[in-house]
């Protein structure tokens, strides 16, 4: 085995045996699976506990204006109960109470909700919305319009549901999800940021540790400094790729297990099948089965829309941009580790490296909303920001030539930065007890070339 191969093996085996690697390999898939399961589960629950709210209307004008919902039940009381209600509303079986103290057309702030615990935004919005509708109707009635109830009914029944359909090359159609695409973009971008920052820092810490313990002096007697640097960078990269591979496999296994638990046959039901199941549930099955049916339906919707994403292409692109971005930054982190004697001295050198990563997160926020904008395009070409910004754009299926151009620029850039960092590493790895400046580093770079 070559000397670089031995270094790669040492770095890889020593890190995959750590407890932190094992723990993260377990937690990661659980978090990813939760991204698919939790939205379906939360949508199927949507506040199953009922809230009982008492309402006292001092004006006696708005009784019945606030309607009940599945999770909120309202009871109208007369104003004589107002004083006893304040101290005794929980014993009366209420979770909160509302006081309407004046004509809302004269005083729009005359509605107050009282509760020991903070009131949910859903409750507040429902009460406000129903009272606003009532006041709108009252204002319209003042114009003596005939057939007003029918007009208002028609207006309130006006809803618009917008679906997004993705067209294939042969005219095929499949329903997509803008929200799911944005989530995929956010996840891929944040993973690149997380992996590059975490494993790049590991490269620097590994170099500093070996330098501080003087182990590097022994190693350098057998291998060239550049071989040591490349072995360390590649070995830690393989650790990162192993962890990501485990995340993919375990996430797929967890989601597949959930799918088989919901649909024992292994196949998700069609829309007609789901309608039949819902009818059967309504016909007499218990609440737990109905709840499971709701969860299965929401889970099916999410998985159907997930199929519209080019996950395979996105994952392959992720591997490339992670490797490219990691090599770009890992070489610089290795050079910083060679320059300093301990991590406390690293700030002045690490900050210029971290700043492009932080900037790329902000640009990625723009790319989530406008992947074809000029700022998203140009920062997806700049190599120090392209790994994160491009992964924020790829789920939106941008033109292929842009992806290939970004890949080519990134490839050329990490080759250059690795060569640049290697020249600094050769000299800095054996320097001790000296405060280094950028001017000194430049001299090392020039000297290494002689």
Please indicate the count of domains.
2
Low-confidence stretches: 270-291
Which shape, going by the Cα principal axes?
elongated
Number of strands: 6
Fraction of residues in helix: 55-70%
Number of helices: 16
What is the C-alpha radius of gyration, as a whole number of Å?
A: 31 Å
Strand order of the largest sheet: 2-1-3-4
Our estimate of the beta-strand percent is 5-15%
Class by alpha and beta content: alpha/beta
Whole-number average pLDDT?
A: 77
The main pleated sheet reads as:
4 strands, mixed
| Element-level helix/strand string | HHEEHEEHHEEHHHHHHHHHHH
Distance between the termini: 30 Å
Write the layout of secondary structure elements.
Elements: H1 3-16, H2 19-45, E1 51-57, E2 72-77, H3 82-88, E3 96-100, E4 111-114, H4 121-141, H5 148-156, E5 164-167, E6 173-176, H6 178-212, H7 215-220, H8 225-262, H9 271-284, H10 287-306, H11 311-339, H12 347-369, H13 374-379, H14 386-393, H15 400-428, H16 438-448
Parallel strand pairs: 1-2, 1-3
Antiparallel strand pairs: 3-4, 5-6
How is this structure best described in words?
Helix 1 (3-16) packs across helix 8, helix 2 packs parallel to helix 8 (225-262) and helix 8 packs antiparallel against helix 11. The chain starts with a helix and ends with a helix. By secondary structure, the protein is of the alpha/beta class. It is 66% helix and 7% strand. Mean pLDDT is 77; it is low at 270-291. The chain contains 16 helices and 6 strands. Strands 2-1-3-4 form a 4-stranded mixed β-sheet, with helices on one face. Strands 5-6 form a two-stranded antiparallel sheet. A hairpin with a 5-residue loop joins strand 5 (164-167) and strand 6. The relative contact order is 0.11. It is elongated, with a radius of gyration of 31 Å. It has 2 domains: 3-41 and 178-448, no CATH class; 51-156, Periplasmic binding protein-like II (D-Maltodextrin-Binding Protein, domain 2, 3-Layer(aba) Sandwich), CATH 3.40.190.
């Amino acid at each position: 085995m070559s000397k670089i191969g031995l270094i790669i093996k040492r770095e890889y085996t020593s890190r995959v045996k750590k407890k932190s690697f094992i723990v993260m390999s377990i937690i990661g898939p659980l978090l990813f699976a939760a991204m698919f399961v939790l939205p379906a589960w939360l949508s199927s629950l949507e506040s199953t506990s009922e809230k009982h709210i008492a309402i006292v209307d001092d004006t006696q004008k708005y009784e019945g204006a606030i309607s009940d919902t599945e999770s909120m039940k309202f009871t109208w009381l007369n104003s004589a109960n107002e004083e006893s209600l304040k101290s005794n509303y929980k014993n009366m079986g209420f979770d909160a109470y509302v006081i309407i103290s004046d004509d809302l057309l004269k005083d729009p702030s005359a509605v107050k909700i009282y509760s020991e615990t903070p009131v949910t935004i859903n409750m507040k919005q429902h009460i406000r919305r129903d009272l606003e509708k009532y006041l709108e109707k009252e204002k319209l009635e003042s114009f003596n319009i005939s057939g007003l109830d029918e007009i208002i009914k028609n207006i309130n029944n006006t809803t618009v549901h917008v679906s997004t359909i993705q067209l294939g090359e042969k005219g095929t159609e499949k329903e997509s999800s803008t929200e799911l695409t944005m989530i995929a973009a956010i996840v891929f971008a944040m993973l690149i940021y997380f992996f590059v920052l975490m494993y790049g820092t590991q490269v620097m810490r590994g170099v500093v540790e070996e330098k501080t313990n003087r182990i590097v002096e022994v190693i350098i007697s057998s291998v060239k400094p550049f071989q040591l640097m490349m072995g360390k960078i590649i070995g830690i990269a393989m650790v990162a790729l192993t962890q990501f591979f485990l995340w993919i496999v375990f996430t797929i296994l967890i989601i597949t297990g959930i799918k088989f638990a919901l649909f024992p046959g292994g196949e998700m039901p069609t829309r007609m099948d789901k309608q039949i199941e819902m009818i059967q549930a309504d016909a007499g099955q218990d609440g737990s089965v109905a709840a499971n049916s709701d969860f299965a339906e929401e889970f099916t919707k999410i998985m159907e829309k997930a199929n519209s994403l080019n996950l395979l292409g996105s994952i392959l692109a992720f591997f490339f941009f992670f490797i490219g971005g990691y090599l770009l930054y890992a070489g610089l982190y290795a050079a910083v580790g060679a320059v300093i004697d301990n991590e406390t001295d690293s700030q002045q050198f690490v900050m210029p490296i971290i700043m492009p990563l932080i900037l790329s997160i902000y640009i990625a926020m723009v790319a989530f909303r406008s992947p074809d904008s000029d700022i998203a395009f140009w920062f997806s070409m700049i190599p120090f920001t392209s790994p994160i910004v491009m992964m924020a754009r790829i789920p939106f299926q941008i033109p292929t030539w842009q992806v290939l151009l970004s890949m080519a620029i990134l490839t050329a850039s990490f080759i250059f930065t690795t060569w640049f960092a290697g020249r600094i590493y050769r000299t800095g790895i054996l320097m001790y007890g000296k405060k280094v400046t950028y001017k000194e580093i430049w001299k090392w770079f020039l000297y290494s070339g002689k």
